[in-house]
Amino acid sequence: MLELRHLSKTFGGLRAVDDVSLTLAEGSIAALIGPNGAGKTTLFALMTGFHPPSGGSVHFLGHDVTGEKPFRIARAGMVRTFQIVQPFAGQTVRENIAVGAHLHIADRAAALAKAEEVARRVGLADRLDRDAADLTVAGRKRLEVARALATEPKLLLLDEVMAGLNPSEIRDVIPVIRAIRDSGITILLIEHVMQAVMELGERAWVLNQGRLIAEGAPRALAADPVVIEAYLGQGMARRLAKGRGDA
Amino acid sequence: MTRLSLLLVVFAALALVPLVVTSEFWLNVCVLTLFSALIGQAWNILGGYAGQFSFGHALFFGVGAYTVAALQVRLGVNPWIGLVLGGALGAAVAVAVGWLTFRYGLRGSYFALVTLAFAEVFRILANSIPWLGAGEGMMIKLAAGPGMLQFKNLANYYWLLLAMTLACFLAVWWLDRSRLGARMLAVRDNEDAAAAIGVDAFAVKLQAMALSGLFMGLAGVFYAQRYLYLDPGLAFGPTESVEALLVAIVGGIGSLFGPLLGAIVLHALSEAAQAALGGLPGANMVIYGTVLVLMVLFLPRGLASLFRQRPQPVEPPDA
Ligand SMILES: Nc1ncnc2c1ncn2[C@@H]1O[C@H](COP(=O)(O)OP(=O)(O)O)[C@@H](O)[C@H]1O
Ligand SMILES: [Mg+2]
Q1: How far apart are CA B75 and CA A91, in angstroms?
Q2: pLDDT tens track for B106-143
Q3: What is the distance in A from the centroid of ligand 1 to the CA of B197?
Q4: Does the CB of B200 have a partner CB in chain A at under 8 Å?
């Protein structure tokens, strides 16, 4: 459903995304992992039209959407959330979600009703009339998901929706995401919480310094020396292996 | 009571004002107040709802005023047609300005300054085009009668203005319960987040410009017909621009009744100051400036926020 071909983005001299090619199949949960500054968020921004790529192309549902405006890509069915949450502060949770629902629903009452239904799906039903600015971090992350979900996307891009949550909050969110996939929405998530990646991801890509360095099942990746080095630094995999050998 | 019935009751009460207020002086104060509410609400659509602060709203006001005046004076076109065209041209010029500025991503203070500059450009143009009367302005021939949109009686002007103001307030009431209104607030609060969930911010802002320009244009038509005289400074100078944004901000931007509250309070203060200081020149501006500073410091969401619990109550969906 999604294909990236040789996608690149440079900021000044920095190659934030460097020749990334990948194909994402419909109906799965896939994960994009990698250390801070690897270029994951930038990759989402390239896919959804927030940054023009320096090179390469993005194909979604068989169409070349490279350089399209964000709102057009959202209308085509690829919707991102923001790592740094962006609530419409001063508006209620219900009103926030309704903006997403309005993508395909013109009627105000119907959009508000849809917002309520989506809030139930992500566990915000008890906070519908709260000001979005008054939500906790966990609540705001859910709101990001809810707003995107209300647009009825075909592909949902979740950028670190579990960062900053405590373990019990994370345990609560995992089934929510799985239920979204079960409703027929393909999900690509950026995540640092390895527990979540292991539990949710059927496939994962590892990005490091803008480049894809590994791809496979999350469990296999976690044991991959190349991946361990990317996270922990040069020579670490060897030392770890040696340590295991010595023991 | 729903907001619509409240709105209609308020306007029904306002319609009775000329029957109660018999003094020409005080009825004139009422006309000026209503006029402020109209342009404040027009500004509120763009500034309060779509979040685009304009410093040059007189531009669309002036376009409306010059349209009805020039059509009558130069081409003999009936002012009722001028009324329609004045509103339409106000909207069209607003869309053109929006297209030029939003296309290049101008936001915030840049947008405000560009609108100010556009108003100034139009003032200079009007000043130099003989067909528009240049610096001397234009005088509309006296021909009292509803067919010519001129009235001997101030009460009739009041009711004409009330109808325009009601139309503008109804438009905002509709925004409060429409997809377009929801999208305006989303663009105002976070343009990127709105775009990510499919909102075409550019189109939304142009629609806000169109609505806002339409009602400023109508206000301009009213002004021209009421005073039967127009010059570039009156039409495109900063007075109406400042009044529009001041009324909206004091009243409470992004709220339906805010501009009416703002207009009433500002004119009440201004009359009180006139009475106390005996028409000291510039006293109005000092009062307005002081009120604005106090509002921004102590009541940033305007007078309307005094009547509203937080969070803002949502109308229950009818379905
Ligand atoms: N708008 C930008 N301008 C300049 N540099 C940027 C911009 N956005 C991201 N970067 C840089 O690109 C690199 C990748 O950032 P990012 O995509 O946010 O990484 P990640 O999401 O993997 O942590 C970082 O070095 C970051 O500083
Ligand atoms: Mg990131």
Answers
A1: 50
A2: 888 899 999 999 999 999 999 999 999 988 999 999 98
A3: 22
A4: yes
Mutate to test the interface with B, among A69, A85, A91 (most CBs of B within 10 A): A91
The predicted pLDDT at position A247 comes to 44
A34 vs A41: CA distance, rounded Å = 11
Gyration radius (Cα) of chain B, Å: 19
Query: Can you tell me the distance from the alpha carbon of A127 to that of A145, in angstroms, rounded to the nearest whole number?
Result: 15
Helical pair B201-227 and B179-189, crossing angle rounded to 10 deg = 110
Whether A139 is in the pocket of ligand 1, judged by its Cβ within 6 Å, is no
- B177: contact with A, CB 8 A cutoff: yes
Q: Is pLDDT at A246 greater than 60 in this prediction?
A: no
Q: Which residue among A7, A14, A81, A190 has the greatest number of ligand 1 atoms within 8 angstroms of its CB, and so is best to mutate?
A: A14
Can you give the pTM of this predicted structure?
A: 0.91
Q: What is the pLDDT of residue B100?
A: 95
pLDDT in tens, A104-156: 999 999 999 999 999 999 999 999 999 999 999 999 999 999 999 999 999 99
pLDDT of A182 > 90? The answer is: yes
What is the C-alpha separation between A201 and A80, in angstroms, rounded?
18
Q: What is the mean pLDDT of residues B26-55?
A: 96
A137 vs B82: CA distance, rounded Å: 55
Query: Quick check: B172 and B44 in contact, CB under 8 A?
Result: yes
User: Residue of the nearest CA to atom 6 in ligand 1?
Assistant: A11
Give me the mean pLDDT over the B255-275 stretch.
Answer: 91
Q: Which chain A residues touch B312 with a CB distance below 8 Å?
A: 90-92
Gap between the Cα atoms of B75 and B140, Å rounded: 12
| Closest CA–CA distance from residue A94 to any residue of chain B (Å) | 9
- Closest by CA position to A95, among listed A106, A109, A81, A80: A109
Which tokens sit at A99? 């903006």
Whether A208 lines ligand 1, by a CB cut-off of 6 Å, is no
Whether residue A88 and residue B186 make contact (CB cut-off 8 A), yes or no, is: yes
User: How far is residue B269's CA from residue A72's CA, in Å, rounded to a whole number?
Assistant: 49
Task: Write down all domains in chain A, each with its CATH number in brackets.
Answer: 2-246 (3.40.50.300)
* DSSP result, A13-62: TEEEEEEEEEEE-TT-EEEEE-STTSSHHHHHHHHTTSS--SEEEEEETT
Cβ pair B118, B56 in contact under 8 A = yes
Q: In degrees rounded to 5, what are phi and psi of residue A13?
A: -90, -10
Domain ranges of chain B: 3-237
Query: What is the mean predicted confidence (pLDDT) over A63-71?
Result: 95
Instruction: Give this complex's ipTM.
Output: 0.90
Ligand 1 atom closest to Cα of A51? 1
B210 interface with A at CB cutoff 8 Å: no
